[in-house]
Specification:
The protein is mainly beta. Helix content is 0%, strand content 40%. Strands 4-3-2-1-5-6 form a six-stranded antiparallel sheet, with no helix packed on it.
């Protein structure tokens, strides 16, 4: 189903915009944070029955890298209104932080450094 405005005009496809293929530099770099998740068990039969490390990958904009937490936002709001969907990860459980950047082709992302 396609919804067409009464005047018959269609909005241009946002992916056809020339800005869509140009990565915008931000003061908040796009990163991949790999970290060890915490967990709890309702019934742990014995101390030997411990779950193995559970590594989680979080991708987003690095908005804070403090002494206790790394904060990664999923969205940067316009007009300086802050961020949305921010994950705060304790530094003590972070394995790696990899900065992501657009490749020369523009659509793929490469890891810069771990």
């Amino acid at each position: 189903m396609e919804v067409v405005p009464l005047d018959g005009a269609r909005d241009p496809d946002p992916l056809d915009s020339p800005l869509a293929s140009v990565p915008q530099e931000s003061e908040y770099p796009l990163v991949l944070v790999t970290w060890r998740d915490a967990w709890f068990d309702f019934d742990e039969p014995s101390p030997e029955d411990v779950r193995a490390d559970y590594l989680v990958d979080t991708v987003g904009f690095l908005v804070r890298r403090g002494p206790r937490f790394v904060s990664v936002a999923q969205e940067i709001l316009p007009d300086g209104d802050g961020f949305r969907a921010v994950t705060h990860i304790p530094v003590a459980v972070v394995e790696t932080i990899a900065r992501l950047h657009a490749s020369d082709e523009g659509d793929e992302f490469d890891l810069l450094a771990r």
